[in-house]
Design goal:
The chain is of the alpha/beta class. The chain contains 25 helices and 17 strands. Helix 10 runs antiparallel to helix 11. It binds ligand C2E and calcium ion (2 copies). The site of one calcium ion has 4 residues, from loops.
Length: about 650
């Protein structure tokens, strides 16, 4: 009941509902007017003869004109109103409905006494039909519906109750009882309508939220959240678009990489790293301007699509300016930091390129600057093109080849400096391709890594290494190189362990050499695999120490059995004081940690002597022996053994 009474009031403080209510109403009211006019004119026509003209003609015609006028108004201006106007119009509608009801009701009752029994029946019918029409057409405005129902039904009941005609009295009584169910119908319809409006509103809100989410998602899909720059995906989309727009003039692109960003992140924390990236993005955007595109391709790598129509010299200058911008100090909460930037640029001729090709070339040029250990700008050159083509040919050949026959291992003796005896061999892969002849492992190992052939290749090589180990004298050990990918891959490492078990070889005769790159890509996976291999009795050497990241924390956390000092330092030990110092430091570090050190790339007697003096125990290099086929390597060890015994007996 309370709900019903509440629904009679207009919800002034609910503008959404008011407009919905008004809209629903405005589609029903014209129907009500049409019904009223038809019904009234039908009554008027039958009374033309029996009632005075003013009653049977002028009044109904006058009322119909008013109805037509209102109908036209509703049809033309009763749409799209504000909530405030809807409120006002609905208030007017309530009063208007009552006035019209009273007018039509009064008119019908006035006609009542002029008609015969049939005509009086028609009046009763007119009042009931008008009442029911009002109920259905005004349902969205319950107060108007209730008032018009009450007015028409009470007019009908009052007229017929006292007519003295038992049929009319019975009709009046049943009419009286009809009011209540009608009121109920009005109420339940209106409550449903309220619910519907609320649901529609909620749905609208949900849709708006979903659209907003969509917008944010598509923004995130194309933008880097941290810097606000275009992201990798967007970079390639823009590149494709430019290539499609004018294929004869491919865009000039650059890939920029920050040198020294990782230590900033590690030492000062990610918040400082984020500041540096944001500031770099700002500096780059200012320099490149609106005409070009700066994007963050990931980590500390940025991609630039240079503005069109810039000369090669202007691009080179801009590239230099971008690198210089990186060299400017960055302010972070803990002070200021300095980093460097390198940039690889491809300035394509008018040939046909894909986005990936352009990226690959710029990235290759960048790799070239970085491998020179300098920072600055490098353009992709004809020389680079030659290397890249070779790289692709090797990659293709790797896919096509039956390695089993073409791959083999050479063995480089590892010598104990003090005694001159061979203690182990390092197995080094050799590929004699039927098509290209001998291909250096420095070319085909990275190619195998890129094309994911490496796992298979490692297994093939390791099978050969195990066969060799069965022939190699039992006191000698064998070192085998694993790629970064192998050491992060459980499947390969499990396969290697299974192969050792099947071969019956003692795992303690085997050493795996890994580089730090493996640890950088996925430390946890590498850690797990290394622990598993060590638990099986295999020892692990950290290869090329000093060249890469050379992190003490890696040595500490992973417990290596050996460090191999990179040949880049060892080879130049006698000429370069820096190399000498690094080699000595690594040798000392190993002594302090109680792990063995191996110097690679020993090319002269002087260097071997120098290393011995520094306390390095083991060495390998051309001075002792180049990598050799197995039989020759075994012969070499035997000869060393004889020479060492001879030296021993001489000194004894
Ligand atoms: P690495 O593991 O550092 O191997 C040592 C490299 O130094 C070998 O080059 C060896 O021939 C060379 N070398 C040895 N003594 C001297 C010397 O006195 N002077 C100079 N200049 N070089 C010397 P190689 O055989 O060309 O192998 C190059 C790299 O390819 C290896 O570097 C290793 O990273 C990779 N590699 C070779 N075999 C395999 C393999 O079976 N598996 C994997 N994953 N990588 C391999
Ligand atoms: Ca090695
Ligand atoms: Ca090495």
């Amino acid at each position: 009941m309370r709900n019903f009474l509440a629904s009679l009031r207009l919800q002034k403080d609910n503008p959404t509902f008011l407009t919905a209510q008004f809209q629903a109403l405005s589609s029903q009211i014209p129907i009500l007017y049409v019904l009223l006019i038809i019904n009234a004119l039908a009554v008027a026509v039958t009374h033309l003869q029996s009632a005075p003209l003013w009653l049977s003609c002028y009044i109904p015609v006058g009322l119909s004109v008013v109805c037509i006028f209102r109908l036209c108004w509703w049809e033309t201006s009763g749409k799209d109103v504000t909530a405030e106007r809807a409120y006002r119009l609905m208030k007017i509608t309530i009063s208007g409905a009552c006035i019209l009801c009273v007018a039509f009701g009064g008119w019908a009752i006035a006609l009542y006494r002029y008609g015969d029994a049939y005509q009086q029946g028609q009046i009763a019918y007119f009042l009931v039909v008008t009442g029911i029409s009002c109920i259905f057409c005004l349902m969205h405005l319950p107060l108007a519906a209730v008032l018009t129902t009450v007015i028409t039904f009470s007019a009908m009941v009052a007229t017929f109750m006292f007519s003295g005609n038992p049929v009319f009295v019975a009709t009046a009584v049943s009419g009286l009882f009809l009011i209540l169910p009608f009121l109920r119908v009005i109420d339940s319809y209106f409550q449903n309508f309220v619910g519907l409006v609320r649901l529609t509103e909620e749905l609208k809100q949900k849709r708006a939220e979903a659209e907003e989410l969509n917008r944010v998602n598509s923004r995130n899909a194309l933008h880097d959240q941290l810097t606000g720059l275009a992201n990798r995906r967007s970079f390639f989309v823009s590149l494709e678009q430019r290539l499609q727009k004018d294929p004869s003039r491919p865009p000039v692109i650059g890939i920029l990489d920050l040198d020294g960003f990782k230590p900033v992140n590690d030492v000062f924390g990610h918040a400082a790293g984020d500041l540096v990236l944001k500031e770099t993005a700002r500096r780059f955007s200012t320099l490149v301007g609106e005409e070009g595109i700066v994007s963050r391709l990931g980590g500390d790598e940025f991609g630039i699509i240079f503005p069109c129509l810039m000369t090669r010299q202007a691009i080179a200058d801009l590239g230099q300016a971008l690198c210089a911008a990186v060299r400017d100090p960055y302010e972070i909460p803990d002070g200021s930091v300095r980093i460097f930037g390198s940039c690889g640029i491809v300035y394509p001729d008018s040939g046909k390129y894909t986005a990936e090709e352009l990226y690959e070339k710029a990235d290759f040029a960048l790799y070239q600057v970085k491998s020179k250990r300098s920072s600055g700008v490098e353009f992709f050159s004809a020389e680079h093109e030659k290397i890249l083509t070779q790289r692709h040919l090797i990659e293709l050949e790797l896919q096509a080849n039956d390695f089993d026959k073409e791959l083999k291992l050479d063995y480089q003796p590892i010598v104990e400096l003090r005694s001159g005896r061979v203690v182990a061999y390092e197995a080094l892969a050799r590929w004699d391709s039927a098509r290209f002849g001998r291909i250096s492992p420095e070319a085909f190992i990275p190619a195998a890594e890129r094309t994911a052939v490496i796992g298979r290749m490692t297994r093939i090589l390791f099978a050969k290494a195990l066969e060799a180990l069965a022939i190699i004298p039992r006191h000698l050990r064998l070192s085998f190189n694993l790629s970064a990918r192998d050491i992060c891959d459980h499947e390969t490492s499990m396969a290697l362990l299974a192969m050792i078990t099947r071969s019956g070889m003692d795992p303690r005769r085997i050493e795996f050499e890994i580089t730090e790159t493996a640890l950088l890509s996925d430390f946890d996976a590498a850690d797990q695999v290394i622990s598993m291999l060590r638990a099986a009795g295999i020892s692990i050497a950290l290869d090329d120490f000093g060249t890469g990241y050379s992190s003490l924390s890696h040595i500490h956390r992973l417990g290596f059995d050996k460090l191999k000092i990179d040949k880049a330092f060892v080879m130049n030990l006698d000429r370069d004081a820096r190399c000498m110092n690094i080699t000595r430091s690594v040798a000392n570090l190993c002594q302090n940690l109680g792990i063995a050190s191996v110097a690679e790339g020993v090319e002269s007697e002087e260097i071997a002597e120098g290393l011995k003096a520094m306390g390095v125990r083991l060495a390998q290099g051309y001075h002792f022996s180049r990598p050799l086929p197995l039989e020759l390597a075994i012969d070499y060890a035997a000869r060393c053994e004889v020479a060492a015994s001879a030296r021993n007996s001489l000194s004894a």
